[in-house]
């Protein structure tokens, strides 16, 4: 078991379902965001729930599953800015933002910008990544650090992507079938390691 | 260096969120949208932003020169980009996490791709319809196809934001009002 990661108790708000949200994260339109439980949102993260579909009533803009982490490794750093915002386009002449769905056990690294339409379960996204609009990332995929994924890409299940458009190859290799169990164990362990420090 | 004097002139039809960092002499034109957490720094000379621009979160506009930094109409500055160019024309797109140095002047209808570092040591002008992309900042010229659709999307995007942003965010007003 690795050593715990401490955070100051005053900085984070813990909800009944075990979500830990930093007070230093920028969360716009919180009524449109669903957190699945045991999800950590680090300081400096920006989550845009205000960019919603037009129309009456409530609209879920961003839904995150269980054991997710937004902005890993930036717990101590203030300069980190990470952004999670839904994608937009015009359809039949109407402009709209579209909802974003993120599955369980998803880790998103520090400084990444995510505008995906859908992210499956057990996905790992590295640091400094840019995930283009309407990208679909399937289950158990991994995105290496500093990767730029162009808009409308589909990342297949159990694949590792890296590089940037105009650069070298984007698909690197297939991941082993044990990825699901490994990522699940890893994210659960991260949540247990993430402990408050009274002071 | 004298201290920076703040002077914000924000058009009554512009939407500037409260959580925006402004410093120096800044003029924001009608219908321009500044998302929360954006930064506009007029360190030496003033910054004048035209109408209908969209400046997304954590984008940074900096003017290090003495002269006026002029930004035209209908430009889109996406998340986390950093612009120091002394002049920007109309209808440009600066994509996510792109960086443009103060040696580059941007004309109109240019696209700077995601994560591009455009930092030439000598002065350079990006001609109309230039597209910059990839890790080596390669350049090509856009044929201009789909320009009307692109402009239409931009206009609708700004229109949507002008309606939706004030519902969820506090707005900032200029000195005059």
Automatic annotation (TrEMBL), chain A:
Native source organism of the sequence: Gymnopilus junonius
Top-level taxonomic group: Eukaryota
Broad class of where this protein is predominantly found: cytoplasm
SUPFAM superfamilies named in the record: Trimeric LpxA-like enzymes
Gene3D superfamilies, A to Z: Hexapeptide repeat proteins
Coiled coil: none
Compartments reported by the entry: Cytoplasm, Cytoskeleton
Entry similarity comment: Belongs to the dynactin subunits 5/6 family. Dynactin subunit 5 subfamily.
The protein, known as: Dynactin subunit 5
UniProt entry keywords in alphabetical sequence: Cytoplasm, Cytoskeleton
One Gene Ontology CC term in the entry: dynactin complex
From TrEMBL, chain B:
Location (main, coarse): cytoplasm
Coiled-coil ranges from the UniProt annotation: none
Entry keywords, A to Z: Cytoplasm, Cytoskeleton
UniProt record, GO biological process: mitotic spindle organization
GO cellular component, one term: dynactin complex
Protein location: Cytoplasm, Cytoskeleton
CDD domains per the UniProt record, alphabetical: LbH_Dynactin_6 (cd04646)
The keyword Endoplasmic reticulum is annotated on this UniProt entry: no
GO molecular function, a single term: dynein complex binding
PANTHER family reported in the protein's UniProt record: DYNACTIN 6, DYNACTIN SUBUNIT 6
Name of this chain's protein: Dynactin subunit 6
């Amino acid at each position: 078991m690795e050593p715990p990661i401490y955070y100051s108790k005053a900085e984070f708000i813990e909800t009944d379902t075990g979500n830990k949200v930093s007070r230093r994260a920028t969360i716009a339109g919180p009524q449109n965001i669903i957190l699945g439980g045991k999800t950590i949102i680090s300081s400096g993260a920006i989550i845009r729930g205000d960019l919603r579909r037009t129309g009456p009533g409530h609209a879920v803009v961003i839904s995150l599953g269980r054991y997710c982490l937004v902005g890993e490794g930036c717990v101590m750093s203030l300069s980190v800015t990470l952004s999670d915002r839904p994608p937009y386009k015009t359809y039949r002449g109407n402009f709209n933002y579209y909802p974003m769905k993120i599955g369980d056990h998803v880790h998103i690294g520090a400084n990444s910008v995510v505008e995906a339409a859908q992210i499956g379960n057990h996905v790992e996204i590295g640091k400094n990544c840019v995930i283009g609009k309407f990208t679909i990332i399937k289950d158990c995929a991994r995105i290496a650090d500093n990767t730029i994924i162009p808009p409308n890409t589909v990342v297949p299940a159990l694949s590792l992507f890296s590089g940037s458009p105009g650069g070298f190859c984007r698909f690197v290799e297939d991941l082993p079938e044990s990825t699901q169990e490994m990522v699940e164990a890893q994210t659960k362990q991260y949540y247990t390691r993430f402990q408050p420090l009274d002071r | 260096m004298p201290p920076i004097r703040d002077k914000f002139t924000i058009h009554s039809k512009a939407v500037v969120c409260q959580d925006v960092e402004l410093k120096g002499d800044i003029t924001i034109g009608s219908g321009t949208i500044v998302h929360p957490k954006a930064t506009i720094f007029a360190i030496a000379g003033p910054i004048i932003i035209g109408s209908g621009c969209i400046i997304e979160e954590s984008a940074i506009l900096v003017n290090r020169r003495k002269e006026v930094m002029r930004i035209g109409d209908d430009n889109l500055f996406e998340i986390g980009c950093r612009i120091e160019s002394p002049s920007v024309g109309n209808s440009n797109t600066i994509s996510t996490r792109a960086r443009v140095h103060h040696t580059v002047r941007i004309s109109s209808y240019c696209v700077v791709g995601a994560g591009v570092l455009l930092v030439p040591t000598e002065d350079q002008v990006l001609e109309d319809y230039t597209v910059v992309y990839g890790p080596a900042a390669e350049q090509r010229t856009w044929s201009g196809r789909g320009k009307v659709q692109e402009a239409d999307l931009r206009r609708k995007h700004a229109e949507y934001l002008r309606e939706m942003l004030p519902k969820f965010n506090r707005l900032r007003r200029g000195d005059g009002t």
